[in-house]
């Protein structure tokens, strides 16, 4: 408590300068104006929930900066807000998604899915008329179809606003003018659109459904695919809102909405109406799948092992090389020391994604620089860098060593220079050899101050998506029989990324989110307990 | 005097062998490491000077063809200059804003005492460990919502992407900066306070000035990080004109060993050169920026 009071006094009080106060009011004013603008848009779109949310956030911001005291909040607010919006929210959202079946086959809400299924399954009514159509605009601006039945020479009309312009036969009383073949040419109050105008409206026109009777589901409707011909269509399924049952018209089979799985399902034989379903909560199923599904569990243990090997190997190799260089070059007697150091850190300065591509080009088996120039003595026994498991893994580790050793060199050099000279001098006076000084004095001290950074580096490499994805894409994919494809250099995160975004069996965000939660917990707890054991972050744990 | 001389072997007779065993061999090690560190860079420079990329580049610097640079700077299919401009705006604003905001938060963590300070610090570190690449659906969801309500910061806008980058870079940045602020003695704050300074004056005129070099390094590191982002930028931007260097150069890589590969190489050289120069010139401060003052460089 005493420290708190002391700090409070230290940073409070003093007369705020006029300039500071003005700046504060100016910035708050800009923020408030922005929020006001957004609120207006939200009210305009009748999104009251969001509007209230934004309003409260704005009020909190104003309260933080206008009240006296509460100093920490004033310094923390901008960072915390952004962190909440784009990091905490992402974590929470992923946590939520991991309990759903969200994915490319379960993309939307129930009503969206219902709509999508119905709209996608449309069939022409058997034996019904087909029309040649012209698209017009009526005086109120809504689009109309003027349809000509070639067989009966009758003209029909109806529009997107079918409450006002229902489907009906057009007669001379409406000012219909036809040419010699009976094609409609003019109707009072209708502007016939030319081809360009029709093209511009194509996406709207193909969506229009003009009902033929009071019930859209049963009576059918007029629709066009190309704005030249139109048919009497009907939906392949009829939906009953009360019972939530879809009936397939072709065979009268009934499919009930099943909220447990998010599908329309037949009760008797379990047939699904469509492979498209809606998003539902499915409890722990995604987690159960990770631990239970043989097709996942099989490759998973291998992937996890390689992930740990990759992360550990990367940290170890970069640290050893970096440390060795730091020890060798922590010597003022070397001429051109600064030049050496500048060149050693070049790989770190070169943007990493470019490095990955450069290495990818160099390691190309047939046309790459490494096989054709550096390893040219091997003749035709070229190393198949991206085609064999061992070579691909070696390549990934080699590239990561190149990318990472300058960082280790820099931090080791820093840590070495922080070791007081008296310590090593005292040891050498006592007759310790250079190697002993390194092993017994420098190394332990170094490890203490660098341990947190090494742990962080392990955590980083554990999820080092870019290094794998850009270089090998997780490949080579040697076993083509697997349902979920697994590459030889796949680490956990590239494997899960494929499930989430580019799976051959469709994206499965739910499963991917369950994975990300598990990865988060795993790497989080590893780091937490390692931090706890090291002195560097002792005040945290 | 004799003891002093013993420490300087070159001053002694029979110098070369001793010099070599003590210092000279280090130059050999240095040369080997230089070759390892630079050959990919030399190689990409050489590729950028060939007409047909890899297949003409088995012997380095056989050609000196500047056409790729010219093509890239004038091409309308691959508007490199626009990509650079986009990237500079994105990475530049992200770097400046994120350093500023992280520094604000770090000041609170380092100098002020409040409830939840320690859990807050721990949370900062742990939240960074979430595999954010798998949170893409959530990020995409936020941005498309924003597109509906506030199009100015939605999908396809730089402002929207900058916000996402900021959210991602704050945690680590704050933590590093916190460590560095801790190395600045509090006595300075106290002295300023006695002279009547307010907390904002202490912050802006004392602490920020003292850490200015480190701020520059952190901004540079953030810049390089944003510069290298491919995934986020490619989901937010769809048209050639909006691409960043990372997304644009990726689009050149359809064919990894001919003409386009040579153009990619030219793009890589041009876009990385300024970064490399700044990085190397800030070398002195970089260790501090990397370790948050946990070790001194």
Task: Describe the secondary-structure layout.
The complex is a heterodimer of chains A (541) and B (297).
Chain A: H1 2-11, H2 18-44, H3 48-66, H4 71-97, E1 106-108, H5 110-120, E2 122-124, E3 130-138, E4 143-148, E5 155-159, E6 168-169, E7 177-178, E8 184-186, E9 190-192, H6 195-200, H7 202-205, E10 210-211, H8 216-219, E11 221-224, E12 229-235, E13 237-240, E14 245-248, E15 253-258, E16 263-265, E17 277-278, H9 285-292, H10 294-328, H11 337-344, H12 346-349, H13 352-362, H14 369-374, H15 389-418, H16 421-429, H17 434-462, H18 465-471, H19 492-501, H20 509-533
Parallel strand pairs in A: 1-17
Antiparallel strand pairs in A: 2-12, 3-4, 3-9, 3-12, 4-5, 5-6, 7-8, 10-11, 11-12, 13-14, 14-15, 15-16
Helix pairs in contact in A: 2-3, 4-20, 9-20, 10-15, 10-17, 13-18, 15-17, 16-17, 17-20, 19-20
Chain B: H1 2-7, H2 15-48, H3 67-74, H4 80-111, H5 117-127, H6 136-149, H7 158-182, H8 186-194, H9 199-210, H10 212-227, H11 231-236, H12 245-251, H13 259-281, H14 283-291
Helix pairs in contact in B: 2-13, 3-13, 4-7, 4-10, 4-12, 5-7, 7-10, 7-14, 8-9, 10-14
The CATH topology of the largest domain in chain A turns out to be: MetI-like fold
The biggest sheet of chain B amounts to: none
- Domains of chain B, number: 2
* Radius of gyration of chain B from CA coordinates: 25 Å
- End-to-end distance of chain A: 20 Å
Would you identify the CATH architecture of the largest domain in chain B?
Answer: Orthogonal Bundle
Beta-strand percent range of chain A: 5-15%
> How many DSSP-defined strands of chain B?
0
Q: Which CATH class of the largest domain in chain B is shown?
A: Mainly Alpha
Q: Give the assembly state of these chains.
A: heterodimer
Distance between the termini of chain B: 32 Å
Low-confidence stretches of chain A: 1-5, 536-541
* Low-pLDDT segments, ≥5 res of chain B: 1-6
Quote the CATH topology of the largest domain in chain B: MetI-like fold
Find the CATH superfamily of the largest domain in chain B: MetI-like
What top-tier CATH class of the largest domain in chain A fits best?
Mainly Alpha
**What integer value in Å does the Rg of chain A equal?**
35 Å
Helix amount of chain B: over 70%
Mean pLDDT of chain A: 84
